[in-house]
What does this fold into?
Amino acid sequence: MTGKNMTRWTRIFVFFAAAFFIAPFFAFGQSDDDINRVISKGLDWLVANQGKRGNWGTNGADGAYPSAMTGMAGLALLSEGSTATQGKYAPNIRNAVDYLLKKARKNGLIGDDNDDHYTYGHGFGLLFLSQVYGEEEDESRREELIDVITRAVKFCGLAQTKAGGWGYVSAKDGNDFDEGSTTITQVQALRGCRNAGISVPKEVIEKAITYIHKCSIKDGAEGVQYNIQGGGGRPPISAAAIACLFNAGEYDDKFVPNLLKYCDRTLGANITNKQDDGHWHYAHYYFAQVKYRQGDKEWKDYREKLFKRLVSEAGSDGAWSGGTGRVYATAINLTILQLEKGALPIYMR
It folds into this structure.
């Protein structure tokens, strides 16, 4: 074979080898560089829109639900790998911690009791602080966090309804009303606390799991309804319920397989459907956690579709729109896109 022919065959080999190895990346819909670029811009947008007190609201530094938005934005920054003491976003995380510590009331509530949905703020704020606590190195700061988190856990127990759930406010303030989404928020926060070594009463978690079971229609085959009184199967709450059951260690519970099939049918098959209601981000925030924990093919197939949509919908400034405002959507989507970094124990496999 001549040198000229050798060169020609070499070029052919290189062409097919490149096609073999590179094609999967094009088929995936976006490269890791695309994803990392979107994540970086989104995190920088959050930082640029953090308030001077360390807070976020629905519209950046301002807006409603500051405790919830601060907790969610803080979780997105932690998911990058930064902590309150190290990393690019350490100053912003510290400021968020300062804000929530100052919002902690004597009765344990993290937030303002004049907020008509303060349970969400308490839950997401507590979850964020529980993830910070494990990496805090300063002894006095750890003691402050332990005090606030311990009182917050106690507040969760006192705010729980007789049925075992939680409402938008405490059982006392809300006449014992409860519903699924706030219940999930409290359970995940409590699990985060337990993972961090904070004592959480076993009976509080057990009552909450029983509540979720009672809200499951036909053992989960038709989803989880709004609350015990009814409301029909709700895909977003159902996805959140699976994540909650996983957090509680119930992987083989008889409800889980049924709920997984329900969510695969109602959420997994409709990721690219643009006709979504305002709960799309909430639903996939939890369903992504579920799929990631399932791993392997379940995560890969779901990830491909979801990440493609999230990357395509990111704004030129780095933020997303939808749901309860830009901070909400941006924080949720960034947390999803960073699940594989494994930075937070609550989201780990």
